[in-house]
Amino acid sequence: MESTFVPKVRGLLVSLLALVFMTALTVAANAQDQKKEQGPQLSGDERNALEKIVKAANTEAKMKAAADYAKKFPKGVKRLEVAGTIANEIYRIQDNNQKIKMAQEFSNTFNQPGEPDLVRPSLIEAYFTANKFDEALNESAKYLEKNPEDVTIHVQITWAGANQAQKMPPTSRLIQEALKSGVKGVELMEADKKPSWMEDAKWKEYRNSWLWRLYQAQGILQVISNNKTAAKESFEKAVGIESYEPSILLQLVNLSSEEYQTLAQQYQKEQKPEQMTKALEKMDEVIDWLARAVAATEGNAQLKEANAQLMENLKQYYSFRNNGKTDGMAGLIDKYRKKG
Predict the structure, then answer these.
(1) 212 and 235 in contact (C-beta within 8 Å)?
(2) 215: closest CA among 155, 168, 305?
(3) What is the pTM of this model?
């Protein structure tokens, strides 16, 4: 699985707020002679404080100027726009430690209702990236309490859990929260529940990119939780959307092979004809997944060894089902090669 987190679409909201802020400041600077300006008037002192934010050289300087503004003008005319601008600056920070520090400062300064949530998604992402899972989950809980249908947060929790699934026990807090968020995230995406702050085109791109990954992450979490039947269903839904993803196909090869081995062992023990029939039907399913996985891994240098092993397994299963012959195997693989 990829280790990156959700595509950076959150900045769309705060970028819009930043644009509003800059536009409003420009208008305000040129509006001193207008007698019929609507809404609360900017005082000269507030205008000067806003100009200091705009002229500040870097994010830390802007944060300091914004903190001065918020202290002097707790009910300032442009307070929301200032908060949005600084949240956008923090969102752009690449260093996780700095992003966390600045986000915490922001929350201390802009602590009026709704304001901390402007920066909380950036803080959540930074905590997850830094593997500070308890902190990330604590901030996620605060955010989701007010924004329960923001699918991007559910995606982050689910993906973080899937990335850590091999390193953590199934009972860990992250895995449990990831399982719940996976269910909720899929539900929201399947219902086409676009976050209110996301543009339609971006939502379509985001949904197309992440729905199959959510199913994949769900499958990994379910495997770790020993719910392999559900895991297989999740992987099948994922591959139904993204047909050529090797990591999903490999999971399906493994799970279907385990099912076949179980059925074969039952037959060897009890020798019932119906068990033989079920085992052979399952072997045919394994052959199909193997052929798809071989086709998907061909030509991938990083998966060269995996491809060779898959091909060897496919030959064994295919020849067993076809009286020692492999004449039709190449055609089966070709059926699943990506065309065009």
Answers:
(1) no
(2) 155
(3) 0.84
Q: What is the pLDDT of residues 110-147, one digit of tens each?
A: 999 999 999 999 999 999 999 999 999 999 999 999 99
One DSSP character per residue, 97-160 reads HHHHHHHHHHHHHS-STTSHHHHHHHHHHHHHHTT-HHHHHHHHHHHHHH-TT-HHHHHHHHHH
Distance CA 135, CA 130 (A): 10
> Per-residue pLDDT for 37 more than 80?
no
The number of C-alpha atoms within 13 Å of 322 and in the hemisphere containing its C-beta is 13
Query: 94-110: string of b/e by CB count within 10 Å (b at 16+)?
Result: eebeebbbbbebbbebb
d(CA 16, CA 13): 5
Q: What angle do CA 244, 247, 250 make, to 5 degrees?
A: 95
Residue 118: which residues within 8 A CB-CB, separation 6 or more?
Answer: 13, 14, 17, 83, 84, 87, 106, 110
pLDDT at 40: 64
pLDDT of residue 9: 40
Dmax of the chain from CA atoms?
Answer: 96
CB 102 within 8 A of CB 93: yes
Is-contact 136 124, C-beta < 8 A?
A: yes
CA distance 63 to 103: 10
Distance between CA atoms of residues 195 and 184, nearest Å: 14
Q: Quickly state the pLDDT bin for 339 (edges 50, 70, 90).
A: confident
Comparison of pLDDT for 12 and 210, the residue scoring more: 210
Given a cut of 60, is residue 36 above it in pLDDT? Answer: no
CA 176 – CA 286 distance, rounded (Å): 31
The per-residue pLDDT for 17 is: 38
Torsion of CA 240, 244, 246, 248, to 10 degrees: -10
